[in-house]
Design a protein that fits this description.
mainly alpha; three-stranded antiparallel sheet
């Protein structure tokens, strides 16, 4: 009987403690996923506005494609989609827009007709080089009041979070 009473007392104390801590409450505005999502949204909107205000009809997503191709011209659409972290369909739609603007060219792979290789046109390369200072200026604006050390710490933390989320389990 003493053991039962002791367990009952412990359980009652635990319930009282749990009532003080509302385990059902979740402050979504202060959650790490929401803070990161909002930050990414603001960065994307800021870069889009920077380009638009300078008279360029290019989005952050299109800019990313131009940058990847600037580093590795002639890669396949699939490799580009994988590196960009987007679906093949989403990447293809972006490439169609860029192709209509005369910024990229898609050609069938020389030895494997199943693949298209993507190249920057002269206009695409010129635009990419023109936009680099604008993109860097945007990075400087968003980094105001943040030390180089803090930026490196943030990069390290984001890489760790990405690694944690990419592991099975």
């Amino acid at each position: 009987m003493v053991v039962y009473e002791l367990i009952s007392l412990l359980f009652t104390a635990l319930l009282k403690t749990l009532k003080k801590v509302d385990v059902t409450k979740y402050d979504i505005e202060e959650s790490l996923p929401m803070l990161m999502a909002n930050c990414v949204k603001f960065m994307r909107e800021s870069l889009n506005a920077t380009f638009s205000n300078a008279g360029f009809d290019i989005t952050q997503e299109q800019w990313n494609i131009l940058v990847y191709l600037g580093h590795e011209d002639g890669i396949s659409q699939q490799v580009l989609a994988d590196r960009y972290g987007r679906s093949k369909v989403s990447t293809m739609n972006l490439l169609k827009k860029l192709e209509k603007q005369g910024l990229v060219l898609r050609e069938t792979h020389p030895t494997d007709a199943r693949y298209n290789c993507v190249y920057l046109t002269v206009a695409g390369r010129m635009l990419q080089k023109t936009l680099i200072p604008l993109a860097k200026g945007n990075i400087q604006r968003m980094s105001q009041g943040i030390s180089e050390e803090e930026i490196e710490q943030l990069k390290t933390l984001v890489r760790k979070i990405s690694k944690n989320l990419n592991q099975p389990g």
